[in-house]
Amino acid sequence: MTMRSGEVGKRIAICKECPELNKLNFCRQCGCFMPAKVRIPQVSCPLLKWDSMNVEDSKDKIPVKDITEE
Ligand code: SF4
């Protein structure tokens, strides 16, 4: 599964400004580890600060398997 790198960056920027993100990068709302969750196209923010994505026509994609390499 893949998604656009620009959209990943937008999600990360929103989460970094969110008071629900704790110091270990887990979201207090959903309990997810956000550096991984932001790379999954089908998920969304529980507070609707960002939405799920359609990635079928993307030309700029990041493999989800790269999550652990950052
Ligand atoms: S997923 Fe939503 S609620 Fe959770 S840290 Fe990111 S912006 Fe905040």
Summary tags:
single chain; 70 residues; two-stranded antiparallel ribbon; 9% strand; binds iron/sulfur cluster
Description:
By secondary structure, the protein is α+β, with helices and mostly antiparallel strands. It has one domain. The chain is built from two helices and two strands. The structure holds iron/sulfur cluster (SF4). Residues 14-15, 18, 20-21, 27, 29-30, 34, 45-47, 49 line the site of iron/sulfur cluster.
Task: Supply the number of structural domains.
Answer: 1
Low-confidence stretches: none
The small molecules bound here are: iron/sulfur cluster
Helix content: 10-25%
**Count of DSSP H/I helices:** 2
Mean pLDDT: 84
List the helices and strands and how they pair.
Blueprint: E1 2-4, H1 5-17, H2 34-37, E2 61-63
Antiparallel strand pairs: 1-2
Explain briefly what this protein structure is:
This protein is of the alpha+beta class and 70 residues long.
